[in-house]
Amino acid sequence: MHTKIVLLGYMGSGKTTIGHRLANELKLPFWDLDEVIGQMFGMSVQYMITRKGELYFRECEQKALKVVISNQAYILATGGGTPCYYNNLEVIKNSSTSIYLQCNPGTLAERLVPEKQNRPLIADIEDDFMTEFIAKHLFERNPYYQQAHYTIDANNSPDIVLEDVLSALDVKKVE
């Protein structure tokens, strides 16, 4: 059985939602990398990015990633940019089973516009330009995301996405 699973994907792709459900299904601990960063460094990711800058945040993110992956078993929801910085993707691929939750820009925009004030990287993007902004960002990040061990269509409901993840991992869902 897979006991070290890392979920990759753009913000809004469902990493935290699916991560919680997958952890419950597989009876593994769940970690959200943003929460780990907050606990380790005593400030929220939003505060860290707006007050200390993205570079400082990425350095903290790398340290937090290394702490989580040193555990024996986990489901980890990364930040959207985590695999794109430093050697994070290499570390993830060499220590765990990675799953890319792939969504199209339109789906992501629908999910993100209502909560964009909680997301510092998109808080200032006008709603009408959100899909275009996401499409550009995805184009830049896809070379990293595509290196995951598995790619799952995450445009669907959480129930369907969870079933698809379990199927990819060759795990039977407990009824």
From TrEMBL:
Subcellular locations according to the entry: Cytoplasm
Pathway assigned to this chain's UniProt record: Metabolic intermediate biosynthesis; chorismate biosynthesis; chorismate from D-erythrose 4-phosphate and phosphoenolpyruvate: step 5/7
Alphabetical list of PANTHER family matching this protein: SHIKIMATE KINASE, SHIKIMATE KINASE 1, CHLOROPLASTIC
Organism: Schleiferia thermophila
Binding residue positions for substrate: D34, R58, G80, R141
Cofactor(s) the protein needs: Mg(2+)
Enzyme class: transferase
Self-association state and partner proteins as the record states: Monomer.
Keywords: Amino-acid biosynthesis, Aromatic amino acid biosynthesis, ATP-binding, Cytoplasm, Kinase, Magnesium, Metal-binding, Nucleotide-binding, Transferase
Pfam families registered for this protein in UniProt: SKI
Main location: cytoplasm
Domain of life: Bacteria
GO biological process: amino acid biosynthetic process; aromatic amino acid family biosynthetic process; chorismate biosynthetic process
Protein family according to the UniProt entry: Belongs to the shikimate kinase family.
Record-given protein name: Shikimate kinase
Comment on bound cofactor: Binds 1 Mg(2+) ion per subunit.
HAMAP family membership: Shikimate_kinase
